[in-house]
Amino acid sequence: MEQDCDIIIIGGGLAGLTAAVHLLQADFSVMLIEKNSYPKHKVCGEYVSNEVLPYLDALGIYPINNCAKKINRFQFSGLTGNALEIKLPLGGFGISRYALDLALYERAISLGLVFEQATATNVTFGREQFEVTTKDKSFRAPYALGAYGKRSGLDITLSRKFISTKSPWMGVKAHYAGEFPEDLVALHNFSGGYCGLSKVETDAINVCYLADVNSFKKHKDLDTYRVEVLEQNRYLKEFFAQAEPIFEKPLTISQISFQDKSAVENHLLMIGDSAGLIHPLCGNGMAMAIHSAKIASECLSNHISTSKKREQLEKEYTKQWKRTFATRMRNGALIQRGLHNATITRLGVGILQKSPRLLSSVIQSTHGNLIT
Ligand SMILES: Cc1cc2nc3c(=O)[nH]c(=O)nc-3n(C[C@H](O)[C@H](O)[C@H](O)COP(=O)(O)OP(=O)(O)OC[C@H]3O[C@@H](n4cnc5c(N)ncnc54)[C@H](O)[C@@H]3O)c2cc1C
């Protein structure tokens, strides 16, 4: 049967682009369908765990050489600003999505990526072939990866369970100029959400928060919400008092769902947020997107070279996904629930202040090990 390439990837965020580079390096022909162009700012905390740094280097992306900030300290504060600080067990780096996604895209193009800028509207599977449809065209390949992020029209087409439930979470992000240490990532709690701060390669400070829409709705707009809610935390008040916004206005997204998803759907191997989104407070979603792309690419490469049944590929990928990510997803959800409760947060900060080692273990429980 006719095919356009070996593998079609739907969605070109971190997961899709990483898989594209990996599979192109392994000499497969790859088409990537992405609705937006590059570069583009995205709602994201922009702190990447070092878990994936050696792997990114192996893909020919060198974040540290490209001025990403090395981050090794973590500060956390509760609602009223009672704070604690530790050295991060694994550490990470600060880089904007504007720069990181672009670097991956340019690397993929240099390796021969076929890029189609369009929205995928449907994907079907039959006679061992996928057919991916956009507004004007359709493409065929024996393998396809779903890398289209947290939520997309495709989830409705695929009748995925989580899509019928509304989510109360919204995300807001903007870059600021001002004072903030280069080696620090901070997470400040406020009533109804939490806000992350860290520097990126341009020296800008990325400010990104997750908020409960119901708490946000009680306030007039983003500025009022910032003053009346975020700035109740004294660390955030001090930060905003001296910082100047770089963006004309903050970027926002809504309907951020943390529900369980399946790693394989209608024979599509799901990677990144399409397979599951960890709570952003863990600062680990990007590392998971990149790592899951690596696992799926390796499973695909092995499968194609051994020509086993497709069912075995799907089982193997699901097994490896769960083994690598299920525990950290569960721990992330538990911490998130605690953080949403003022009393638990206050008590938790008190306990953790006395035992920084315990905080280190909590962070480790939501992170993986260095990919070597
Ligand atoms: C508020 C917030 C803060 C966060 N902070 C951090 C952090 O500090 N550190 C961290 O590691 N993680 C963080 N994360 C998580 C991180 O942003 C995600 O885990 C990561 O972006 C997942 O990458 P992805 O490639 O799966 O999805 P995305 O980056 O969302 O990419 C999906 C791509 O698919 C495209 N697409 C969607 N539908 C279609 C379609 N039908 N056809 C074609 N293209 C399509 C989109 O345009 C997009 O480019 C945060 C998340 C949120 C919500």
Give an account of the 3D structure.
The protein has 372 residues and is α/β, with parallel strands linked by helices. It has a single domain (7-165, 256-364), classed as 3-Layer(bba) Sandwich (FAD/NAD(P)-binding domain), CATH 3.50.50.60. It has eleven helices and 18 strands. Strands 3, 4, 5, 11, 12, 13, 14, 15 and 16 form a nine-stranded mixed sheet that branches. Strands 6-2-1-10-18-17 form a six-stranded mixed sheet. The longest helix has 30 residues, at 310-339. The protein is globular, with a radius of gyration of 21 Å. Bound molecules: flavin-adenine dinucleotide. Flavin-adenine dinucleotide (FAD) binds next to helix 1, strand 2, strand 3, helix 4 and strand 14.
The residue-averaged pLDDT reads 95
Low-confidence stretches: none
| Contiguous helical run count | 11
Total number of beta strands? 18
Domains counted in the coordinates: how many?
1
Q: Evaluate the radius of gyration.
A: 21 Å
Tell me the strand percentage band: 25-35%
Using the 3D structure, state the CATH architecture: 3-Layer(bba) Sandwich
Write down the secondary-structure element order. Answer: EHEEHEEHEEEEEHEEEEHHHEEEEHHHH
Please render the helix and strand layout as text.
Elements: E1 7-10, H1 14-25, E2 30-34, E3 47-49, H2 53-58, E4 69-77, E5 83-94, H3 97-110, E6 114-117, E7 122-126, E8 129-133, E9 138-141, E10 143-146, H4 153-157, E11 169-177, E12 184-190, E13 193-199, E14 205-212, H5 213-216, H6 222-228, H7 234-242, E15 244-245, E16 251-253, E17 264-265, E18 268-270, H8 285-306, H9 310-339, H10 342-354, H11 356-364
Parallel strand pairs: 1-2, 1-10, 2-6, 4-12, 10-18
Antiparallel strand pairs: 3-5, 4-5, 7-8, 8-9, 11-14, 11-15, 11-16, 12-13, 13-14, 17-18
Helix pairs in contact: 1-3, 1-8, 8-9
